[in-house]
Amino acid sequence: MGLERRRVLFGEPERITGNAEQDALATALRAIEAREGERRGWDQPPRLFALHLADIDSGAIELRVVPPRLWAVPGHRNPADALAAFAARFPEPEAVGHLAFADSPGGFAGLAQMHEGWAAPDDAEESAEERARRAAGERTYKDRPDRLEVRLVIAVDINGHSYLLRRIRGGEAEMVSTAATDDRHISQARGRVPHALGRLVHAVRTGVLTLD
After folding, report:
1. Runs of H (alpha helix) within the chain
2. How far apart are CA 79 and CA 115, in angstroms?
3. Which residues are registered as beta bridge partners of 155?
4. How does residue 120 score in pLDDT terms, banded at 50, 70 and 90?
5. At what angle do helices 79-87 and 192-205 cross, to 10 degrees?
6. CA distance 174 to 120
7. What is the pTM of this model?
8. Is 73 exposed, middle or buried (0-12, 13-18, 19+ CB in 10 A)?
9. Considering only CA atoms, which of 123, 188, 111 is closest in space to residue 153?
10. Are 152 and 123 in contact (CB under 8 A)?
11. Closest CA to 33 of 170, 145, 148, 152
């Protein structure tokens, strides 16, 4: 397949999960958002990265850029829907034991999707109508006058832990959920993207899907 490879240097280390591997990946995600997101500017297309981190003390992560022609299934304007449609082609994940990043072929540590979208302020109130529309699968944030433009980096590692980094336009990036929170595993994670990523990561881990 010949995926494009990029090396991203870590910044200040994250110490939030109590687990060296998970902290290293959280550190890497912040660095990825800074370089591939904030430095490049806004209004960028969604991107999918394979994450390779064979040595968590190396101070850098290798990204392999998965081209949209592979994962962005036509007919879906929303990147979450496109990714979910691609992931649906692969089996549901089965229970697996812990695998260290260093023991994974090529140091494969997981997958991350970066995309932009709309969100409501954290303290925003939601009307009954909006709740009903969202329960029906509609995306309503874009219709709100108080909407915020956000960039999200959502990742799942090879052991099923999910991570979410968010930057509101004009603000600082913040780690919203990591392996240290209630959303630490895709079985508890909210949204379609972590579940789709978890399915794809499992497919790579078990050899059903090859990304190199």
Report:
1. 20-32, 68-71, 79-87, 128-135, 192-205
2. 7
3. 112, 163
4. confident
5. 40
6. 16
7. 0.90
8. middle
9. 111
10. no
11. 152
